[in-house]
Design brief:
Blueprint: E1 12-18, E2 24-30, E3 37-43, E4 47-49, E5 55-57, H1 60-70, H2 78-93, E6 99-101, H3 102-116, H4 118-128, H5 134-150
Parallel strand pairs: 4-6
Antiparallel strand pairs: 1-2, 2-3, 4-5
């Protein structure tokens, strides 16, 4: 790590602490040349491979942005979206891969979104899974109803057909 003050190519770690979310480490460093102190934050990199082949860093903000559209008009708060994005990132990181396809991120979104709001889940799934007919919606709603019967504690409110 180069010193930001004198550009010396080395520095000494004085203190290390994990961040609040446990996904990064804050290190306090000191330059042996000029004595300047500075902080660095280290995180494990996670890159997303887009359909076009472009690789970019994972962004919780992009997850929130994509899900926000599906949640429009629903009783979902920004805090709910932040928690969902954190769950998605944790699920993707648990795969152990440093690069993931956008498809894997979409799959990781579906579970937490389904638990958050079933209408938003259907909206997102209809685009993500490219529903082409009413039958696709009926199948998805049927699956949700079957899960509701199988899990009595399920609190998703589904309209009856």
């Amino acid at each position: 790590m180069h010193c930001p003050f004198c550009r010396h190519p080395d520095s000494r770690v004085i203190d290390s602490r994990t961040s609040d979310d446990g996904l990064s480490i804050r290190r306090r460093r000191q330059c042996p040349e000029c004595g300047g102190r500075f902080s660095t934050i280290e995180t494990a990199s996670l890159n997303v491979i887009k359909r076009s082949g472009v690789i970019e860093p994972f962004s919780r903000e992009k997850v929130i942005s994509g899900v926000r559209k599906a949640c429009q008009g629903r009783p979902v708060t920004e805090a709910d979206l932040a928690v969902l994005a954190q769950k998605v990132e944790e699920a993707v990181r648990q795969t152990g891969a440093s690069q993931v396809d956008t498809n894997e991120i979409g799959l990781a979104i579906l579970g937490p979104l389904r638990a958050l709001d079933v209408v938003a889940y259907l909206r997102f799934a209809s685009v993500y899974r490219a529903f082409e007919s009413l039958d696709d919606f009926e199948t998805a709603i049927g699956d949700l109803r079957a899960d509701r019967v199988a899990a009595p504690g399920f609190d998703g409110d589904l309209p009856r057909a």
